[in-house]
Write a structure and sequence with these properties.
This protein is α/β, with parallel strands linked by helices. The chain is 37% helix and 22% strand. Helix 1 packs parallel to helix 9. Bound molecules: S-adenosylmethionine (SAM). The site of S-adenosylmethionine has 17 residues, from strand 1 and helix 2.
Length: 220
């Protein structure tokens, strides 16, 4: 479902450059059409394709590296739209957001996946999750929600979350504002806090809200 949403955003807002952090088997990547596409993943598993550390064909470039390494050496602006779907931890998703938001084109958007875990087990950090629940076959959504909570406390990041499986949060900055996230103590927050305040923390919207948002962005 997130692929259709991202494509709709690209088409409606006339975006010409797309960056995806975390490609996995390329299911989303292969479904996205954009004039320029850049993908980053240290462990790329796109079937039938073999990559060196850098692979480029047509309008698509893929880097086999971590997002930290990619952002440390990428150009500016990096893209009109950045889809963050890499390491699902608070620490890494926060780093990815800051790196992306500093380098995004004017009028661009950062979209972050996996912001809405629906159970404590889905929200566990990877090591705990694998060790304590080796039998678990469901999704690993992680604690990316803490990044959204930290940004929400800063009061200077605009965002909302579409209520699709695992959650898809749209984030953008006002040109005049600096990001001042509040990270203290957020790492320690339990899942129960998120579960109780889910709608407010995520600014949760039904998927139908996307049309309203895109209309407002195109007419302002
Ligand atoms: C959920 S999958 C991505 C799914 C893909 N975006 C899609 O929608 O089809 C997460 C991917 O993030 C990658 N990843 C993990 N740590 C990363 C990092 N530090 N930088 C970039 N990618 C990372 C993993 O290798 C994995 O392939």
């Amino acid at each position: 479902m997130h692929t259709e949403i991202i494509q709709k955003v690209i088409d409606k807002l006339g975006y010409t450059s797309y960056l995806e952090i975390g490609l996995d088997r390329g299911i989303n990547w292969c479904g996205i059409t954009c004039k320029k596409k850049v993908g980053v993943d240290p462990v790329i598993m796109i079937p039938k394709l073999e990559y060196g550390d850098f692979f480029c064909w047509g309008n698509e470039t893929i880097y086999r590296k971590t997002s930290d390494d990619f952002f440390a050496s990428c150009g500016h602006p990096v893209a009109d739209i950045v889809f963050i779907d890499g390491m699902h931890t608070f620490e890494q998703s926060a780093k990815d957001f800051h790196a992306a938001s500093r380098r995004i084109a004017e009028g661009g958007l950062v979209l972050m996946h996996d912001t809405n875990p629906t159970s404590e087990i889905e929200s566990m950090i990877y090591d705990t999750y694998m060790t304590e629940h080796p039998e678990y076959q469901g999704a690993w959504v992680g604690d990316v929600w803490k990044t959204i909570y930290a940004l929400s406390q800063s009061g200077n990041v605009n965002y909302f979350t579409l209520d699709i499986p695992y959650g898809l949060t749209f984030l953008w900055l006002d040109k005049s504002k600096e990001i001042k996230p509040v990270y203290e103590d957020v790492a320690k927050l339990p899942y129960s806090f998120f579960n109780k305040n889910r709608k407010d923390i995520l600014n949760l919207k039904p998927v139908t809200y996307l049309g309203e948002f895109l209309l407002a962005r195109t007419t302002c």
